[in-house]
Design goal:
65 residues, mainly alpha, 2 helices, 86% helix
């Protein structure tokens, strides 16, 4: 189970990076402000999920003891 949560955390961290890069490129080219706002909201949601998965993995493996 902890292996699954580790992999899922890595996937969500990768998604965070992709959404962040997409949002930065949109802002650099002067794109739609609404799209940038939506992308940054999605980034925050993905970061929260990734953090929850990291914490769950640490809890399952007894990390930090």
């Amino acid at each position: 189970m902890s292996g699954f949560t580790s992999v899922m955390a890595l996937i969500f961290m990768g998604l965070v990076v992709l959404v962040l890069i997409r949002g930065l490129f949109n802002m650099m080219k002067g794109g739609d402000g609404n799209l940038s706002n939506k992308l940054m909201r999605m980034r925050i949601l993905l970061q929260a999920i990734a953090l929850a998965l990291i914490m769950l993995t640490l809890w399952l493996t007894g990390g930090g003891r």
